[in-house]
Amino acid sequence: MSADDPDSDSGADADLETAVPDEYSPYTLQQADGDDARHAFWADVVADRVEAQEPDEPIVIKGGISPSGVPHLGNVNEIMRGFYVAEVLRERGYEVRQVFTADDRDPLRKLPRTLCDLEGNLVDLGEVDAGALGRNLGSPYTDIPDPFGCCDSYGDHFSTIIQDSADALDVPIDLVSNTELYENGDLEDVTRFVLEHQDRARDVLSKYQDKVDEAYVPFNPICEECGKITETVTSVDLEGDTPTVEYECTDMDAGDQTIDGCGHEGTATLREGKLPWRFEWPAQWQELGVDFEPFGKDHAEGSWPSGQDVARNVLEIEPPVPMVYEWFTLEGEPFSSSEGNVILVSDVLELLEPEVLRYFFAKDPTKARDFSIERLDQLVDEFDRLEAIYFDEIEADEDERAFAERVYPLLVDEPREERIRLPYTFAAVLGMFDDPDLREEVARKEGHIPDDAPEWAVEGALARVERARNWARRTGNEFDYELKRSEIPDHDFDADTEEALEELADFIEAGHDPEEIQGEIYETAKRHDVDIGDFFGAGYRLFFDEDQGPKLGPFLAKLDREFVVARLRRER
């Protein structure tokens, strides 16, 4: 559901163990309900609960977002949690439909500081027509012109990015526009039902929202004069084939500001407005036949209790099976478009393979995690370990093995034992070379590509190099340097330094591990009475034509030994 609603409990620190009824609680996910069977994968537990409801087919799994701004990686959480449950149910022979609603009839309540184009490039509000957006505060997203001029509306622009993100991860969602549901009349019957039972709706809503009086009507028309959504309905006429409401366009509270209404008095049909969000979410469940919906912990205390209450006691339907997932952070901080702390799926897939990102979302949803670009190598190493466990290439404990065997086939198109994964930091080292042939040559010399490797496996392995190179450049880390491989950079060393370099070359030629080489750099400098900083600087000059660089010992250990020895001796 939309996390952008004015009454949303987005600031609540929900107690996830008690936020949903016990019979639906998805915690602890390792333990199956009512027996001693243990599931290695949380999605199996959730699928058990969906299956226990004996749903009709297709089973409908839903998520949703209000396309108010940049659809970042955090928004994909809901898509991916639904995807894994859908895949488990498909394995069990069910037909499954995964829908994702764009709650694009929501009004624009504030101007975002940051937007993005369809390629994922972030821009400040000042780089687009901010005045046009400002004039449309209070209007539905689908009635606001696209600030980039490429899509039908503001809402359509950001919905397109959501669809592109799902496509990039090979998740088959049906993106459903709320605006279209209203305009096509799909939500007309349920809206009419809510208005026919206004007393019941008011009684339920009053438990969750202040200022619900006898004049409250659960419908928000769109003003025909100014295009803004108004919350003031003065009368309701449900007689005849086309029910209508009379309204007055009044001011709208939007956080710390007020959006002025134009004062127009008019008439709207039920297709020319929207239900308030606490009624709209259950209305979507009814119209779309939703059987399961995951949602973030911000909705666990307020939104879900009111949603199931409205479903049962206003609409007279059963709510879907819920699942609360924890948020994750980006570099230790909450995702924030306004602060620029966002990353899009398209950005992430320039840094790692889709299956690695899918692995991140396969982890236990009840645990908060940090997505760190700086430490992306650790995530990739985790995935590589999972893959190696699956193919029985390394030792693992029983739980690790059970998880790998269950989850890995859901992450890749097809498990292929001949695949090759270059260690991510080694791939970053290879990214210092511009020559693709040289990258492959070094990878083969270092034993990472077998002589009999199929061509598709070699191509896949080397594709990681470009991603690791992008990672190094994005973070400016120790691998963000260009190795001068083709010719020796200009240098001018004194005799002591040259002798020390010769001795270091002999040490490396004899064969030693990264930390031994790092230690020997210090010892060699001391033995030849060369300043340690100057000696490291000599190494950086020879390999990068720079005065600084990565940790030198581990770096040299990752290069082919013959080249390192020759360069230290200034031979090539």
Automatic annotation (TrEMBL):
GO cellular component: cytoplasm
UniProt motif ('HIGH' region) ranges: 67-75
A Pfam family it matches: tRNA-synt_1f
Sequence ranges of Acidic residues compositional bias: 1-16
A Gene Ontology BP annotation from the UniProt entry: lysyl-tRNA aminoacylation
Catalytic activity as recorded in UniProt: tRNA(Lys) + L-lysine + ATP = L-lysyl-tRNA(Lys) + AMP + diphosphate
The keyword ATP-binding is annotated on this UniProt entry: yes
GO MF: ATP binding; lysine-tRNA ligase activity; tRNA binding
InterPro entries, A to Z: aa-tRNA-synth_I_codon-bd_sub2 (IPR020751), aa-tRNA-synth_I_CS (IPR001412), aa_tRNA-synth_I_cd-bd_sf (IPR008925), Lys-tRNA-ligase (IPR002904), Lys-tRNA-ligase_SC_fold (IPR042078), Rossmann-like_a/b/a_fold (IPR014729)
Segments for region (Disordered): 1-31
Motif ('KMSKS' region): 334-338
Localization per record: Cytoplasm
Keywords for the protein's UniProt record, in alphabetical order: Aminoacyl-tRNA synthetase, ATP-binding, Cytoplasm, Ligase, Nucleotide-binding, Protein biosynthesis
Family listed: Belongs to the class-I aminoacyl-tRNA synthetase family.
PANTHER family the UniProt entry points to: LYSINE--TRNA LIGASE
Protein known as: Lysine--tRNA ligase
Natural source organism: Halopiger xanaduensis (strain DSM 18323 / JCM 14033 / SH-6)
